[in-house]
Amino acid sequence: MNYYRPFCVLLVSAVLLSCKQENSRNAEENAATSEIAPATESQMASSSAAVESKNPDRKFIRTADLKFKVKNVAQSTYSIENTVSRFNGFVTSTELRSIVNNTTTTKVSSDSLIETTRFNVENAMIIRVPNTALDTTLKTIARQIDYLDYRIIKADDVSLQLLSNQLSQKRNAANQQRVTQAIQNRGKKLGETLDAEDRLHESQTESDDAQLSSRALNDQVSYSTVSLYLYQKEAVRHEKIANPENEKFRTGLGIRFADGLRNGWYMLESLLVFLSNLWTLFVIAIVGWLLYRKFKKPSV
Fold first, then answer.
1. Residue 111 carries which DSSP code?
2. In Å, what is the CA distance from 168 to each residue of 175, 211, 212?
3. Residue 20 to residue 117: CA distance in whole angstroms
4. Half-sphere exposure of 139 toward its Cβ, with a 13 Å CA cutoff?
């Protein structure tokens, strides 16, 4: 018995050491997971492209495109709409719909059926929020995300394009002033005056186009556009409905017999009308038969 005691002690020590190492390894994995999870969640929405630039000379058009899964599309839609309103934005488009994948019916009694419908709920939204609130809006929307498919954020620098439009407006303004003075100085020279007025009109048109382009760019700079596509896992709906093949819903024998007599009479009327349209054929057949009898040679 004394010979086995050292082996038992060694065996128990090995088991205890193994359990301790396993617990230590699980604790390290849990700690690593807890450290990674917040970073992943924050990366879902936050991006340097979504943060307003502190350089006043830079003008960016920021856009975002997200597709993600949520627990409930309808509830998430209402929450996102409230978030947009809270940050002084607005919704330009929302298309909340249910798509039926399959519908089956199961008979549960002589007069009842269970209709099972499998469907998906989705919503495609386009929202616009102030560029200063884009990052905050995306972080708030990220709370609705159950699974992120993709997130695309872009920041297009349009500073040079705005500067080009501004310089174009200045050139056109100076050109318009010179053309106007030239028209006034030419007096009664009609041909030259008309050419100058045509050039003035073209210059004004170019100036208006540049001004409209600048306003459109400034609007896109001031308000960022975010495209969202929300979906949820397939839902199942069960509904109890009446069995249309139930005997209670069949027409009575007397009514069906009366309908049969009436339909037969209608068929007879249709046949008589059809035959009346063929009276010429009957006349030709009778005349032909009479002629045949008249000119038929008697048999020897």
1. T
2. 10, 9, 12
3. 52
4. 13
Q: Is the four-CA dihedral 55, 56, 59, 60 of positive or negative sign?
A: positive
Neighbours of 10 (CB within 10 A): 10
DSSP assignment letter at 238: E
Does 248 have pLDDT greater than 80? no
Burial class (CB in 10 A: 0-12, 13-18, 19+), 155: buried
Provide the whole-model pTM. Answer: 0.57
Instruction: Kindly write down the DSSP assignment for every residue of 24-73, as one continuous string.
Output: HHHHHHHHHHHHHHHHHHHHTT--GGGSPPS-TT--EEEEEEEEEE-S-H
β-pair type (223-231, 112-130):
antiparallel
Res. 192: pLDDT tops 60 = no
Between 158 and 134, name the one with better pLDDT.
134
Question: Residue 203 corresponds to which tokens in the numbers above?
Answer: 């210059």
Alpha helices, H only, 52-158: 73-86, 134-141
Q: Which residues contact 98 (CB under 8 A, 6 or more apart)?
A: 119, 120, 121
- Cα–Cα distance between 169 and 154 in angstroms, integer? 29
Q: Which residues pair with 103 in a beta bridge?
A: 117
Residues sharing a CB contact under 8 Å with residue 144, sequence separation 6 or more, in sequence order: 68, 70, 76, 79, 80, 230
| Residues comprising the chain, all counted | 300
